[in-house]
Design a protein that fits this description.
globular; mainly alpha; about 75% helix
């Protein structure tokens, strides 16, 4: 959404057409979040229906699908806005992708190295919120923290908002 504009130089045209850079970023973030939310909600709902139809009845425990589906879609939308914010800060596609993958995966990968602090470190990762929302058996309190799924998602959204605020530094940076 943004790194391609920086690499091709069309970001100058975008800012010439809409000089308020914060408004441009907010519009891009809204579009990315909305598209990702709808696509994820449709795909997860389809996957749930297909899985429910193909798995044997009563063999696997099922959680409540409706709040989980909405939370999973929101989690992906938050990750997409994080990607947009990092792309705005880094201005390079490969660097932004690498940074976002690191932000998403490294806390849960390196959490076990910190012993008793694992639940705090791994619990802050967006993947921990996703594990809690999907009600997976991997979401034990000792590995992803004791915070519930919705507060975990709010924590991830708050950290994404912080990165997005940092991306608003584009007002002070040249194109």
């Amino acid at each position: 959404m943004v790194t391609g504009e920086y690499s091709s130089g069309t970001i100058r045209t975008t800012f010439a057409a809409a000089p308020h850079r914060g408004t441009v970023f907010a519009a891009k973030a809204t579009l990315v979040a909305a598209v990702m939310y709808v696509l994820t909600l449709l795909s997860c709902s389809t996957a749930y229906v297909v899985g429910d139809a193909t798995l044997p009845e009563g063999r696997y425990a099922q959680g409540d699908p409706l709040p989980a589906l909405f939370g999973i879609a929101a989690s992906f939308a938050v990750a997409a806005v994080l990607g947009l914010a990092v792309g705005t800060l880094v201005r390079h596609s490969a660097g932004a992708v690498t940074t976002v993958i690191g932000l998403l995966l490294l806390p849960s990968l390196f959490g076990p190295l910190f012993g008793n602090a694992e639940r705090w470190i791994a619990g802050l990762s967006p993947t921990a919120a996703l594990e809690k929302l999907t009600q997976t058996s991997d979401a034990a309190a000792d590995t992803v923290g004791s915070l519930g799924p919705w507060p975990s998602l709010l924590l991830v959204a708050a950290s994404t908002a912080d990165v997005s605020l940092a991306a608003l530094l584009l007002r002070r940076r040249d194109v």
